[in-house]
Amino acid sequence: MIRFDNVSKKYPGTSRPALNSIDLEILRGEFVFLVGASGSGKSSCLRLMLKEEKPSTGSIHVLGQDLGSISNRKVPYFRRNLGVVFQDFRLLPNKTVAANVAFTLQVIGKSRGFIQEAVPDTLKMVGLEEKAQRLPHELSGGEQQRVAIARAIVNKPQVLLADEPTGNLDPVTSAGIMTLLERINASGTTIVMATHEAGIVDQMKRRVIELSAGQIVRDERRGGYGATTAIPVVAEGQIATAAPTAEAPVAVGATVGAASVAPVPLSEQAPAAAAPKVPTSVMENAQPLYIEPEVTDDVTDAAAAITAAATSSIPIVPVEPPPTTMSRPVLPVATENDVPALTLAEKLGLRAPGAKTNDTGEQEVGPTR
Ligand SMILES: Nc1ncnc2c1ncn2[C@@H]1O[C@H](COP(=O)(O)OP(=O)(O)OP(=O)(O)O)[C@@H](O)[C@H]1O
């Protein structure tokens, strides 16, 4: 479903790659946490999956498509299968809750009848049917994030990418958002979520991929947050270090750029980059609402095995992947050199990059075909 083959990303003007030779496979139905210190490459991973950035080297397949072969004009079509949720909600401030959610469907040319049915259904799912006519500023932060999630899932995407979706929320509200994401995942949507929230990760026990200085240092099927917060941010030109833990031994001999990764005792490491905010007790209170991820066990095992094979230093027992989930149809190759800076509508896959807007900047965004 999502595959990185030897992907590196180096931003212009930087000396150290944000991502360094990443191999990764995420299968249908998984719920995956991306964890790691600030600057370790989590958001870069998500932006690459969304084709908001392109890799410097390596290839990325999402939903069977080689992202390198998708032209800028076709990016909105590709993104229709992806929902995106950000830390800062990114709602349209002058539109009601219902209009914010409907916006996604309007711009991809869904009929009025479809929209009139889908929007209330989705608002009901996120528990906001009573607030459909409110404006975003009349909502709490948690409610605004639920609108953003409703907007992301109203078109029933196969994949939901979430970049610190609880980062601006209090612990109890965060637990509610995670319950909602669990429900969405249980309905079949693959979720990849970058987070600093140890309480959430520890309680949910889903697949955890840990990045350190742009490399995968841990991939656990039912992982916890681990000692991630003890991993120092790596400044330009410094030698990268990763915290060794019982669950996540540091890869001996792994490299970051030209520098060796040298394990450093926890006592000698820099202070935590981000403090965990949601205590386990809060997550435990939300637990009865969780749906056990039984249906995803097989694919999660398979994905863990594939990633383990790709990142040979990470000890995970291999299992046979289900054959139906492993086919990766590849689209015909077309070349594309640049991914331009994108507007919100473009980032959400609602308008082709560079497509014209009208005076309001947000209405004239119909089908781009
Ligand atoms: N547009 C950019 N231009 C230059 N460097 C960038 C850009 N975006 C990210 N970086 C750098 O790439 C590295 C990885 O950044 P990224 O945002 O992916 O990390 P992160 O793990 O998501 O961090 P955080 O937890 O703080 O959000 C960092 O060193 C960052 O400074």
UniProtKB/TrEMBL annotation:
Keywords: ATP-binding, Cell cycle, Cell division, Cell membrane, Membrane, Nucleotide-binding. The gene is ftsE. InterPro entries: AAA+_ATPase, ABC_transporter-like_ATP-bd, ABC_transporter-like_CS, ABC_transpr_LolD-like, Cell_div_FtsE, P-loop_NTPase. Pfam families: ABC_tran. Residues 2-238 form the ABC transporter domain. PANTHER family: CELL DIVISION ATP-BINDING PROTEIN FTSE (PTHR24220:SF470), IMPORT ATP-BINDING PROTEIN (PTHR24220). One of its GO terms (biological process) is cell division. Belongs to the ABC transporter superfamily. One of its GO terms (cellular component) is plasma membrane. The keyword Cell cycle applies. It is a peripheral membrane protein. This is Cell division ATP-binding protein FtsE. Part of the ABC transporter FtsEX involved in cellular division. Has ATPase activity. It is found in: Cell membrane. Residues 347-369 are annotated as: Disordered. The keyword Nucleotide-binding applies. Homodimer. Forms a membrane-associated complex with FtsX. It comes from Orlajensenia leifsoniae. One of its GO terms (molecular function) is transmembrane transporter activity.
